[in-house]
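Journal club side-thread
Mid-discussion, someone asked how the predicted structure for our own chain would compare to the paper's figures. Pasting it here so we can look after the session.
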Amino acid sequence: MTATLTRQSAPPPPSAPRPRAQRGWFAALLLRLHFFAGILVAPFILVAAISGGLYALAPSLEKVVYADQLEASSAAQNVSLTDQIVTAEELVGDEGTLSAVRPAPEPGATTRVMFADPELGESESRAIFVDPASGEILGDLTVYGTSGSLPLRTWISQLHRSLHLGDAGRLYSELAASWLGIVAVAGLGLWVARFRKSRTKRDMIRPQRGYTGYRKARSWHTSIGLWVAVGALFLSATGITWSQLGGANVSELRTALGWQTPAVSTSLDGGAAPADEHAHHHGGSSPAEDGDTEVTSANAATFSSVLTVAQRENINTGLVEIKPPAEPGTAWVVQEIQRSYPTEVDSVAIDGTTLETVDRVDFADFSLPAKLSRWGIDLHMGSMFGLPNQLAMVLLAAGIATLTVLGYVMWWRRRPTRAARFEPGRPPARGVLRGAPWWGVAAVIAGAIAIGLFLPLVGYTLAAFVVLDVIIGLVQHRRKEAHA
C-alpha cells in the first residue's frame, strides 16, 4: 500500500527542453528545397532549356531556310519604295490591309510589305517580299510580331513559349522560369556552404574524373552548376517578365516605380505614352507597336515621304518599320527595330497630312531601368550580339539541360539497391526547421509567402511540395509502426 501511494504521489518527469538552434539548418533547408524542386519541376526546366537553345539558333537558321525570300537578286536599288509597295498591293488585292512596310535594310536584302489579315492569328501579318533591284515578288509568308519571325522561328518560339498549347501551355514556361531562379539560388547556397568546409576547394570548381557512381555525377553537377548559376538567374528573371501571372506583377511593379519603357505618341494632340516592352517577347505585341488594332488605308507614296522626314529627325539605321495610322486622326510611326548592339530603337510620329513631327522618342533618353529591360530582352532572345550571343545562349541552355539530367542520375544512384521492390532515392532528412531559431523560421515563412504572392505558380507548387512531404512522412511513419 505504501509503495502504491509512493508511486501515485511521485512528481511527473520534467518536460523535455526545447532543442537549441543548430548550425547548418539553413543549408539543410536549401538542400531539401533544391531536391524537391529539382525532382518535381526539372522536367519543365529541361523542356524549356532544350526549346530555348533551339530558339536561340532560329535567327541564323532562318537566314538559311528563307534565303530565297530574304536575299535580293543584286545590291542595286532600281525600284522605288512606292513602286515596291504598289506591286505588293496588286498581288494581295482585297485580301488584306496594308499595315506596315520594312524597307530593305541593306543592299542585297528584300523589302517586306506587310498586310493585316483577319484570318491570321494575333500579332501575325502577311508579308510580301519584294526585290528592290528588279521589283519581282520573291515570297509570300506569314510573319510574327515585332521581331518579324518567319514560320520556322515562329514555330520554335511557340514551342518554347507554350508547347503549342495556347495560353494554358504558357503556364509550363512560367513554372520553369519561376523555379529556375530558386533552384539556382538554392544550389549556389549549397555550393558556398560546402566550399567553406571543403579541404580540396578546387574539387568544387572543376569536376573530378577519378570519381565513380554517385560521387562522379555529383562532382559534375556541382561544377557545372557553379558556372551556369548566374546565367540561369538571368534567364529566370527575364523569362518571368513575359509570363502570365508573375509577369502581370512585374508590370505593376514597373509602373509603380516609374520604370516603364516610353513609347511614341500617335495622338495629333501630342503627349508621350509609356509602353511595356515585356509584352513583345517572341513577337507579343501592343497596339501601339504591332498594329493589332484596325488599320486604315494608306497611300503607297506617303511611306516614302514619311520615311524621308523621319530620317531627318532621328531615324538613322537601315532596320526600320513604317506604320500608317492605326485609326483616323492619328499619326504615322517610323521606328527603328535594330535589337543588336548598339541598340537602335528610336521612333518618331509624323502627321501624314502636313509631314510635321508630332512626337519622338530616343533610346538615349530612356531611363536606366528601361534600357536594362531592353538589353535583357535582347540578350535573352539572342539578338543583341548576333551569333556570339546565340551560341552563348545555346551553351547556357545545354548546361541547364545537363544539370537536370545529372540531378536525376544522382537521384537514381541514391536509391536502395537491396530493397525487395523498387524504391526511389531517399530525400534529405526532414524536420530541418526544428533546429532553426525562431527568427529563422519566421524569415522562411515570410519569404515563402512573399515569393508565392509575387510568383503565384511558385506559391501553388510550394504548397504542393509541403503537402506531399507531409504525406510521405505519414506513410513512412506508419510503415515503421507496422514493422515495430
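Post-session note: The chain has a mean pLDDT of 85.
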